[in-house]
Amino acid sequence: MSIVSLTDLAYIGSLLHESFSIPVFFMNRSGRIEFDFTGNLQASPLHGSMERMLSPLLHTSDSPDFPVLRTSDYFENFCSILIEEGGLFQGVLLLGPVVYSQIPDLLIMGLVNDYRMRAKQEEIAEYYRVLPIMPSSQFVQASCHAYYMIYRKQLDPTHILRMNRTMEQLPLQAETSVQNLSERRLYAEFHRDRAFEKQIWECIQKGQADRLRILWQSPAQTEGVGVLSKKSQVRNQKNLAISSITLATRYAMDGGLPPETAYTLSDLYIQMLEELTTAKDVDDLLARALYDFADRVNRNKTQSYTKPVKQCINYMFNHVYEEVPLSTLAELTGLHAKYISTLFKKEVGVTFTDYFQQLRIEEAKSLMRYSERTITDICVLLNFYDQSYFTKVFKKQTGRTPKQYIREST
């Protein structure tokens, strides 16, 4: 894999810093920072120096085929792109640190107390005030830009997320072995009652959403949960939730949910999860994710769609942020456009246009509840041509305007 010169890398770093307003570093194979673009960001009092903050990111075993995303114990998010030439490791281009949402003062106080750094409380608070805030989806987009400028290879954000999910990463400064963490994630050994766990996964596999809701709201759900992070309750909840979503994905596929749908759903929920900053929000989102998996398995079991119609449904679900014309579905299924349109309406009961509209409104509801995006941003993301039309469609489907829905959801 050929690589650009250090001068070109510095230029790329400068462009990324100016375009996305995020810190950019290049650390060579010896662990020395060759260049950095950091704006007014100073070294974190939690780390002591930039080198100590970045050195855990220097992984020679990382794949050069995609950007690697990592989160520190201090809620800092990084992207590392391995730089190699002729198969030889040269260093890493690093984006970050950034946070996915504003870190509450109470959480900062928790870090100060956890690490017994009261003397540096003001410095730590100032560090988080200066730290760039960037939604995870935008951070992944920035990694796509960086990777393309270096390797001239186009990557899909979903692909980057999926490849990162398959890596058994050791969290920065983790005190647990990779093997132990892997075993906990794969088998959900959180010291819960195993009979209770079995019931939860069985509900998802069989699509028993109502039974799952009753079980999940029972006292047994919160008893005896183990700890994956000794340093942060929120990080602990996130680790447990990620493990649970990973298992739910597998049981949903065992129950017949198409793998592409299951993995995309998993990526979506884990991405949303990383933007949350309170344990309660993490728990609420996990419950929603598990219910969603069970609901979808149930719908998949009860809907005897033909293969072409299922192909169309899966494609629309996975491309909800794009325009999906009938010609694309015709090409996907290898059928005539008029025929697939008629078949879709006959089996589903609505036109493919109306069905896709419903998917987009459901996605809009998720964004309103679990992100800080404005209604205007959501309109643009979901390709509604203006806000008044979006409001009309949203109200027709939900019975409420977007503003009313946001008020009721907060």
Automatic annotation (TrEMBL):
One Pfam match: HTH_18
InterPro entries reported for this sequence: Homeodomain-like_sf, HTH_AraC, HTH_AraC-typ_CS
Any GO MF annotation of the entry: sequence-specific DNA binding
Keyword terms of this UniProt record: DNA-binding, Transcription, Transcription regulation
PROSITE patterns recorded: HTH_ARAC_FAMILY_1, HTH_ARAC_FAMILY_2
Keyword Nuclease appears in the UniProt entry: no
Residue intervals of the HTH araC/xylS-type domain: 310-408
PANTHER family: ARAC-FAMILY TRANSCRIPTIONAL REGULATOR
Protein name: HTH araC/xylS-type domain-containing protein
Organism: Paenibacillus mucilaginosus K02
